[in-house]
Amino acid sequence: MLLWIALGGAAGTVARYGVGLAADRFTATWPAGTLIVNIVGSFMLGLFTFWLRTPPFDPALRAALTIGLCGGFTTFSTFSYETVVLAESGGMARALTYVGLSVGLSVLGMMAGVAAARAFAA
Predict the structure, then answer these.
(1) What is the pLDDT of residues 75-94, one digit of tens each?
(2) pTM of structure
(3) Are the C-beta atoms of 13 and 47 separated by less than 8 Å?
(4) 56, 64 Cβ separation under 8 angstroms
(5) H/E element, 37
(6) Using an 8 Å Cβ cutoff, are 70 and 13 in contact?
């Protein structure tokens, strides 16, 4: 199963790079490539997760497409899936808290990483 996940991840990573290159041809001031992969990746994970959850689909195929392909393409798809699961389980407040914390703390983490890199480079 790990081989299938790795192959799916490689394909997702290459696809992400290709989408980024294509998007950069049209816009240099907006992260259109990231936005596109986040939206498409979320759609794909939703499709694969719920479509492939019952037999006759092989668990290795499901893992290759969800963990591998979607995970390599974007981790935002996993975040979106988890938010939907929280909301559907009756926890809209928990889902919104998760969204706020995920986005806010991730941006702060990025800022801290950039600051650390700049400090080490100085």
Answers:
(1) 787 788 889 989 999 789 98
(2) 0.74
(3) no
(4) no
(5) helix 32-51
(6) no
